[in-house]
Design brief:
By secondary structure, the protein is mostly beta strands. 9% of the residues lie in helices and 50% in strands. The chain is built from two helices and eleven strands; from the N terminus they run E-E-H-H-E-E-E-E-E-E-E-E-E. The strands form three sheets. Strands 5-4-3-6-11 form a five-stranded antiparallel β-sheet, with no helix packed on it. A four-stranded antiparallel β-sheet has the order 9-8-7-10, with no helix packed on it. The two termini are 20 Å apart.
Length: 144
Amino acid sequence: VMRAGQVVQVGSPAQVYQRPVDADTARFIGEAVILDGHVVSHDGGLSTVDCALGQVTAPAAETPPPGSSCGVLIRPENLALGEGRVPARVVASTYFGHDLLVTLRLGTGGGGPEVRSRMIGARIPEPGVETFVRVSGLAHILPG
């Protein structure tokens, strides 16, 4: 990946998509949910990080020390609707035939940050519907 004539990351497409070096690269490669986070703990090879999507897990090797602030990257396909503990309100749904992109506003009554979930299925959530969301899989930590 090049930016302004400089190489910013080298890797396979999967490596760059799953572990981009920064938020700009993450957004350039594809849809990205990027939230502010706060590292809670390291336990073995994993870290727990608090963000607007609750506590998420990330590889400890890429996570700053507990007490640090960081960026949290979650790809839309790793957000599951209808389950979890984080309330959200559907803002919009865009149907693509093979999948749909659902825009959500987090928090009770939809007062929090906006995120997008990409999911497979014929059931299209209507705007205004209250649901829950959870993170499936590991988050990726970004600088700062």
